[in-house]
C-alpha cells in the first residue's frame, strides 16, 4: 500500500482549492457589505458578478455539446445539480461540471441575505448560526 504524503492528502483533486475559495468568498461577502446593508444592492451585485459569465459559458456549452434543450440544461440555468440521488457534494454535477460549486455559493448567498435582513451588525454570526443549524 502506497503511503500518501501531506500534499496528496490536502490537495488531491483540488478539493482544498474549493474549500479555500469558499472561505475567501465568505470573507469578501462580509467585507463588501460593511457599509451597505441593502438586500437589493447585495442581490444585484451577486447576480451580475456571476450569472452573465455563467450564462455565456452555458450557451457556449449548449452550442458545442447539447444541440437540444434538456432537463439538465434547465436545471443548469437555475444552478441545480443534475441528480440529487448521487453522492454529495456533487449530486451528478451540473451541465458545466465546475459549476457545481456555484450551487453552494448561491445557497450561501441566500443564507447571508437572511442574516443581512435580520441584523446588519451581526450578519456574520446570524449567517453562521443558520449554516450550522442546517
Q: What's a quick, concise take on this entry?
A:
The protein has 134 residues and is mainly α.
List the helices and strands and how they pair.
Blueprint: H1 6-11, H2 15-32, H3 39-64, H4 71-77, H5 100-118, H6 123-133
Keywords:
6 helices, globular, mainly alpha, 134 residues
What does this structure look like?
The chain is mostly helical and 134 residues long. Helix content is 65%, strand content 0%. The protein contains six helices and no strands. The longest helix has 26 residues. It is globular, with a radius of gyration of 17 Å. The model has no long low-confidence stretch (mean pLDDT 85).
Largest sheet: none
Q: What's the SSE pattern? A: HHHHHH
Rounded to the nearest angstrom, the distance between the terminal CA atoms is 38 Å
Give the assembly state of these chains. single chain
Helical content (DSSP H or I, runs of 4+): 55-70%
Give the radius of gyration: 17 Å
Structural class: mainly alpha
Strand content: under 5%
| Mean pLDDT across every amino acid position | 85
Q: Count of DSSP E strands?
A: 0
